[in-house]
Amino acid sequence: MLLDEDPATLIHHTIGNFNIHPDKVAIGRINESLSTLQQARDLRIRESENALRKLSRNLQTLATQHNETVSSHNTTDHASQIVELDTQKFRVAKAASDLEIEGERLEQDLDGLKVRLQQLDSEGEEGDDTIKAKRELEDPTVLKLKVYRSLGIDVDPDQTGTYNKATIRNTQKGDIHVVNIDTKFSRFFYANYFWQTLG
Predict the structure, then answer these.
(1) Quick check: 199 pLDDT over 80?
(2) Which residues of 64-77 are buried (b: 16+ CB within 10 A; e: fewer)?
(3) Which neighbouring-strand residues pair with 155?
(4) What digits encode the pLDDT tens for the residues 94-122?
(5) What is the number of alpha carbons within 13 Å of residue 188 lying toward its C-beta?
(6) Ramachandran angles phi, psi of 114, nearest 5°
(7) What is the pLDDT, as a whole number, of residue 136?
(8) Which strands sit side by side in the sheet containing 163-170, from one edge to the other?
(9) pLDDT digits (tens, 9 = 90+) for 11-58
């Protein structure tokens, strides 16, 4: 079979249409977002721990003062203050626990994304056979090109991806015709021309 272009060039164009670079870029952005979230989580945990330690010190100081001045102060008001500080302490502790759980969930998501990235890297730019087959079934352009090739017509794209050149092979006559497709002619015109050339 005669080709107007080098097979290596055709293969390079084909491979160029199937790349996972956008997926890698998206996963990279996700990893950056997860890293930022992790840093924010760590910062919030440290702030919560500092607040918790501060409240604990305040509670201890107030408890000491209470023991020293219990006779001269209203024990009911002081007890209410202690209860309020305890409540704040438990709220801070719960917030720290929630942040810890959220951090673990983000780490699991990150591990899952890393596994997916490894799978994409191992599949290569074109993907595995299942993905390629599914892509071909879903892509109407691929289906049209297959029909054209079965008739002996190869349609080639230019550098912009526009299909503007057709190579028609008539195996019965041993002829090869190269047709530059121009938008000023209708599809009906080219369809008639192709059939006449193949006939």
Answers:
(1) no
(2) eeeeeeeeeeeeee
(3) 166
(4) 999 999 998 898 898 888 888 888 888 77
(5) 0
(6) -65, -40
(7) 55
(8) 153-157, 163-170, 175-180
(9) 777 776 766 777 788 888 999 988 999 999 999 999 999 999 999 999
SS3 of residue 170 by DSSP = strand
Strand pairing category for 175-180 and 153-157? unpaired
Query: For the chain, first and last CA: distance in Å?
Result: 19
Contact 196, 187 (CB under 8 A): no
Residue 177, helix vs strand vs coil? strand
CB atoms within 10 A of CB 125: 13
Give 68's Cβ-side CA count (13 Å radius).
6
d(CA 110, CA 104): 10
Q: DSSP characters for 8-29?
A: HHHHHHHHHTS--HHHHHHHHH
